Amino acid sequence: MFKIRVISLLLVVTLFSCSYKYMNSKKTVEITAKEILGNSKYQAICYGGFRTKTRDAVPTVSQIKEDLRILSAMNIKVLRTYNVHHNEVCNLLKAIRALKKKEPNFEMYVMLGAWIDCKNAWTALPPIHDQESERNAVEIEEAVKLTNEYPEIIKIIAVGNEAMVKWATSYYVQPGTILKWVNHLQNLKKEQKLPENVWITSSDNFASWGGGGDEYHVEDLKLLIKAVDYISIHTYPMHDTHYNPKFWWGLENEKQLSEREKIDAAMIRSRDYAIAQYKSVSNYMKSLGIDKPIHIGETGWATISNDYYGASGSKATDEYKEAQYYNLMRNWTNKEGISCFYFEAFDEQWKDSSNPLGSENHFGLINLEAQAKYALWKMVDQGFFKGLTRDGKPITKTYNGNEKALWLDVKTPSELVKNY
Predict the structure, then answer these.
(1) What is the C-alpha to C-alpha distance for residues 407 and 105, in angstroms, rounded to an integer?
(2) Which of 215, 241, 259, 276 is most buried, taking the most CB atoms under 10 A from its CB?
(3) How confident is the model over 141-184, as pLDDT tens digits?
(4) Count of CB atoms situated within 10 Å of the CB of 86
C-alpha cells in the first residue's frame, strides 16, 4: 500500500501527469491495435476539444464526455491525440474511463501522440534540425506513464506529428531522432515496461515516409520503417489545390458537365490524388523489401478559408466539398481495410487565433456552435444525435439545413482558371 501511495504521489507532482490513479491499471483486455487498425467497425478520427482561442483553457472532463458521446454516435471508436503537454489528454483518458465504467459496452480507444521538436523550435533562435529539443524526453516519458496507466484505452503511441517533413521549418527533426525514440519504446515493450501489444509508429507527411523526393531516402528512414509496427501517413489534396493545382482544374472533356458534376469529378480526382500518395509510400516501403501495414494518420478538408484555399485562392473550401471528400475517403479506406484518422472531429479556433477565417480553424465536421456540417446532415436527420448536446447546445445543421443557402458558398473548379 505504501508503494502504491508513493507512486500516486509521484504521478501527482509530475508536471504533466494525470492526477487520477487507476487501481486496476494492470488489467488487460483482448482488443489490440492489430485488431483495431484496418477494421471498419472501428472508425477513427483526430480529436481536439479546445473551444477557445488558447489552449490554456483546457476542456473539462464533462465537456469531453459530451464530445465522446457525439463521436460514439457517429460510430467513431478510435481517437488520435497530438501531445501530452496540455492536460487535455489526461482529461480525455479520465472521461473515456468514466464512460466505460458507467456503460460497460462503451468503446473508445486512443492513438496517443508524443510531440517531437528540434532544438530551438518555436523560439527566436535558429532551429537546429539535427539536434532535438530537451522537451522530447518529457513527452516520451509521459506517454509511457499514460500508456501503462490506461492500457485498456491507449493502443498506439505515435512519436511525432509531421516531425520529419522539411516544410515544417520551425521544428522538423531528422529521421534519426524519431528512430531513437521508436527504438526506445520498442525496447520498453521487450522489457515488459510497456504493454506488449501497444503499437508504435510516427505520423507524418507521405513524403517523409519515402513517397516524395529522394532527399527523404536516407538510411535512418529505412531503419525507421523497419522499426515501427505500422506506417502512419498524412495526405492533403486540399492543400495541394494551391501548391499543385492542375489536378483540381476542370478537364477539357468536363466542360459540358453541370457545375455540381464538375465539383464531383474534381473531388474524385482529389481522392485519387490521396490514393496515389498512399501508393507512393507503399511502393517505397516494398522497394526496401519491407511489408507492413500503412494507415492514414491524417487527412481532411477545410470548409472556410480566407487564404490560399478560399475565394481569393484555389476556391477549394466549402461544406459540400468537405462532405464529398469525407465520404469518398471513408468508402475507399473501409473497402481497402485501411484506418483513416480523419482530420478532424470539431472546429478549433486556437490554431489560427489571430485569423478567425483561417483554414486551420475550420477542418471540423462539427463547428463551435454545435452545428453539424453538410457531411453529417443525414445523421442529424436520422436522429443519431438525438438528446446529445455540446456545451448545452443540441446538435443541429449548418445553414439551418437549407441546401440552397449552402450552395451559395460553393465555388466550382471552372472558376479557378479565371483569376488564379
Answers:
(1) 40
(2) 241
(3) 999 999 999 999 999 999 999 999 999 999 999 999 999 999 99
(4) 18
